[in-house]
Amino acid sequence: MIGSLIDFFITSALILFGIALLLTLFRLIKGPTTADRVVAFDTASAILMSMVGMLSIVFGTFSFLDSILLIAIISFVSTVSISRFIEGGHVFNANNKRNR
């Protein structure tokens, strides 16, 4: 009884994550501004991490947890770099006073 209930909730969660990912990818493609696309990319990566975590539960393995960490790191670095580029057009600050 409990096993079938857990399977139902895991399956429904994966379906809802899939629908949310499709809606987010639509916003990522159609987004009117670059800032909207950055937020959609960050949301899509969070949904993808959740889906990979649910698949890790389904398959009963810890192997996927490394890929969740990798997705999170790549998402964070890309979000910060694109946001810095939108802000001032520079990803790396070459005129840093600490370099002198």
TrEMBL record:
GO CC annotation, single: plasma membrane
Subcellular location: Cell membrane
Keyword annotations from UniProtKB, A to Z: Antiport, Cell membrane, Ion transport, Membrane, Transmembrane, Transmembrane helix, Transport
Top-level taxon of origin: Bacteria
InterPro entries: MrpF/PhaF-like
Transmembrane segment boundaries: 6-26, 38-62, 68-86
Entry membrane topology: Multi-pass membrane protein
Cross-referenced NCBIfam families: PRK12657.1
Protein name: Na+/H+ antiporter Mnh2 subunit F
Species: Staphylococcus equorum
Chain's gene name: mnhF2
